[in-house]
Specification:
This protein is mostly helical. The protein has one domain. The protein has 11 helices and 2 strands, in the order αββαααααααααα. A two-stranded antiparallel sheet has the order 1-2. A hairpin with a 2-residue loop joins β1 (about 25-30) and β2. α4 packs across α10 (about 195-220) and α8 crosses α10. The longest helix has 27 residues, at about 45-70. The radius of gyration is 19 Å and the shape is globular.
């Protein structure tokens, strides 16, 4: 996205997405109509600030640990799960180019003007860094490839994929943990001003579409199943 930015393909949605979010999820606070992001930008606390960082980091640790579990127990889901993630990512990136969108923090900082090459911003996650006296999210978002990729929230999509495979294998305790993690990620994506609720909903739908495509391929495409079997033999070689 650095080499070929999505805003060179389509116009970036800034005001449109903000106003749609406000129209659907906005509410009165101190006599003013605000979005949930605007409310949390003013009404936040240190405990939630720390939790926001913990949950936001779990989007990558949860699927990694689940894949390691499948590898350790020699289950084909160790192959299926990453392929499902690939499909979800491909759908998500297709949407990034179809509908470039600015995150809530961009509107708070720059308004509705499109500014090319805008640097990344940790937004509300900076409070996590401040609370712990570290520079984790500041350094991460300095390397952001493109800030106009708020819709869909792939952070919100990933735990759905993990939850699907955990439920599929009837890992009830793990499923409960992943389910709670998913709820936390969805909430703190909004709390930290990185995503609108609409982005989160779109991310969840993106995961469901990706999983549906995966199921169709797995159930009806013989070539796909042969590829999975071939990869399984390579991974689980005796």
């Amino acid at each position: 996205m650095k080499v070929f930015p999505n805003y060179n393909v389509n116009d970036v949605s800034i005001k449109e997405l903000y106003e749609t979010e406000k129209a659907i999820f906005g509410f009165l606070s101190d006599g003013k109509m605000v979005t949930p992001n605007e409310y949390f930008a003013v009404h936040n606390n240190k405990i939630f600030d720390i939790l926001s960082g913990i949950f936001y980091l779990s989007w990558v640790t949860v699927p990694i640990f689940l894949t390691i579990y499948f590898l350790y127990t020699k289950q084909k889901e160790a192959i299926h799960l990453p392929i499902a993630f690939l499909l979800v990512n491909l759908i998500g990136f297709a949407m990034y180019y179809s509908y470039p969108a600015a995150p809530p923090w961009y509107v708070a900082q720059y308004g509705f003007e499109f500014i090319k090459n805008t640097p990344g911003n940790p937004a509300g996650l900076s409070r996590f860094d401040d609370a712990l006296g570290i520079n984790l999210f500041h350094s991460m978002y300095q390397k952001s490839s493109n800030v106009f990729a708020a819709m869909p929230s792939l952070h919100s999509a990933y735990p759905v994929v993990s939850l699907y495979f955990a439920l599929k294998k009837k890992l009830l305790r793990i499923s409960v943990v992943i389910g709670l993690t998913a709820i936390g990620i969805w909430f703190f994506a909004v709390y930290s001003s990185h995503h609108y609720i609409l982005d989160v909903v779109c991310g969840i739908l993106c995961a469901l579409v990706g999983l549906t495509v995966y199921q169709i391929l797995n159930n009806k495409q013989q070539l796909f199943r042969k590829m999975i079997d071939g990869l399984s033999k390579l991974v689980f070689v005796k």
